[in-house]
Design brief:
The chain has 211 residues and is mainly β. It is 8% helix and 44% strand. The chain folds into two domains: 131 residues, Beta Barrel (OB fold (Dihydrolipoamide Acetyltransferase, E2P)); 58 residues, no CATH class. The protein has a six-stranded mixed beta sheet. Strands 1, 10, 11 and 12 form a four-stranded antiparallel beta sheet that branches. It has a three-stranded antiparallel beta sheet with strand order 13-14-15, with no helix packed on it. The two termini are 25 Å apart.
Length: 211
């Protein structure tokens, strides 16, 4: 599941892209992908060159882009090994838009969000750095972005409620009743005991001031 901002509904946070037979739903906000458990990699870098890998069927041709990494914004799960120790990686994309194909422009610096591989299509979040919104640019340069600040809200009893959205859109919320704030007031740590007896904790920036 992924963290979602409480101030926005999922409907207002997404837009639709349609290209011939391909329709996908992508968020306008890089933070939505950063805080999404299904997004394992977010890379910033420049497209150096491209090579077309032809198949027996023209609609199945693949373009392989040499992508020079300037910053690894997020690297989690098994996909982190795809970029470990590398400065240049190959990003593959289908060329046929009806098959959700997409293209990158040579010489342009992008921020791109990936799932479990370095294959992209029309539905991947990708933006030229020069076109990034200020909030997206700030996140791409922030090594300590806190998803709890977007997805959690203080409650009247000095505890915390955080909500997550599953892949199909269902929203579930968890109450964190056990909270304490550091002496300097910069961070509050909240925990909850789950039904299986395990403890789950989140770090919330600042004091628990009910909004």
């Amino acid at each position: 599941m992924e963290w979602i901002p409480l101030a926005l509904t999922f409907v207002t946070a997404v837009c639709f892209h349609r290209s011939q037979g391909c329709t996908c739903m992508t968020s306008k906000d890089l933070a939505d992908y950063y805080c999404d458990d299904y997004t394992e990699l977010i890379l910033r870098g420049e497209v150096l060159n491209s090579t077309v890998v032809e198949s027996n069927y023209p609609w199945a041709d693949i373009v392989s882009y040499a992508f020079e990494i300037t910053s690894v914004i997020k690297a989690e799960g098994n996909s982190s090994r795809l970029v470990e120790g590398k400065s240049i990686v190959d990003i593959n994309a289908n060329t046929n838009e009806a098959m959700c194909g997409t293209r990158l422009t040579l010489g342009v610096e992008y921020v791109i969000a990936f799932g479990a591989s370095l294959h992209i299509n029309l539905c991947n979040w990708k933006r030229p750095v020069l076109d990034l919104q200020p909030s997206d640019l700030e996140l791409s340069e922030d090594a300590f972005f806190n998803c709890a600040a977007r997805s959690c809200r203080p409650t009247a009893d000095n505890s915390l409620e955080c909500c997550r959205r599953a892949r199909l859109g269902e929203v579930s919320c968890l109450h964190y009743p056990f909270c304490y704030t550091e002496l300097d007031g910069e961070m509050t740590h909240c925990c909850a005991i789950l039904t299986d007896g395990t403890v789950e904790c989140v770090d919330y920036p600042g004091l628990l001031l009910k909004k």
